[in-house]
Each structure stands twice: as structure tokens, then as C-alpha cells.
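[Meeting: bench + compute handoff]

Bench side (C.D.) handed over the final construct sequence. Compute side (W.E.) agreed to return the predicted structure before the next meeting so the bench team could plan truncations. Sequence as handed over:
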Amino acid sequence: MIRALGRIALCAVLCCAGGCGYTMSASLDGGPERTLRLTTIENRLFPNRPGYEYDLTRRLKDEIATDRRLKLSEGQADVVLEVALTRFVEPNLVEDLKTGRPAEVLLSARATVVARGKTVPGGEVRRTVNVSTSYAPALGEPREVGMTRLWRDMAREILDVAADTEWAAR
């Protein structure tokens, strides 16, 4: 009986909150949605790490689909985004003293980002984006989980260069 009343109260609160006029948006600057054309991501990593540019491209497209500031375009666009992966390192942070195997591994990547277009302050912005995360093999966390986090964080930082005009103006 108490559970049923709790559910009814929760439904009533949610119904009332839905009509308050609030909307959820990722747009931080209050500006209109901008169109974005993503050029081919360059892989300038040494030593060579083939395929990382494809992982980042996929993640950028996924993030653009959920970011209400930007809309992906193949033709004319407000912002043209050029990205080059320039650094990737994967050192061990902690080793298991008994086995000598990695207990925690750092993943760090750097990309050079150029955003050009009519909505970009000064017409062009160049930024270096650095992102780091880690994963813990000793706790059973696979490398893929860490790589997914790394590309997600990198994609979000890159999109900030393209979308946030106040940040880009600095």
C-alpha cells in the first residue's frame, strides 16, 4: 500500500515538473545549433597506431548526435573541423608487486584541432587537446573500457573547440 502511494506521488511530481517550461539542452552559450563538417582525422602517431583515427571518428560522430549545439553536415557548414592525433602513450602507473603485471595503466592522447568558419571567433581557432584516463587490469577492467573513456573524453573536448565560441575566443 505504501509503495503504491509512493509511486502515485512520484508520477504526480513528474507530471507537474514536465510542465514547468524547463528544457534540457547541451547548448551552453544559448546560441543556435551550428552545422559542422568533420574532415578526415589524420593519424600522426609515432610509433604508428593504425585504426585509432577511426575509433576517434566514430566517437566524434556519436557525440555530435547527442550534442544539441552541433549538427553534422556533409556539405556547407558553419564550422569545418580538422583533427590530427599527434600523441598516444600507455605507461603503467602501478604494478602488482607479486606478479609484476600492470595493476593500473594510464591512457593519454593529444590532438591538434583547427575549427574554421563564420561562427568561429576570428574565423579560425587552433587548439591542442590533451586527455588522460586509466584502466585497472588488476580489478578485471579490460583495456577496451579505458579506450572507450579516452575517445569519449577526447571527442567532447574537440567538440567544445567547435561549439563554444566564448572558450574558443580566449
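W.E. noted at the follow-up: Residues 31-169 form a domain with the Double Stranded RNA Binding Domain fold (CATH 3.30.160.150). C.D. will use this when planning the next construct.
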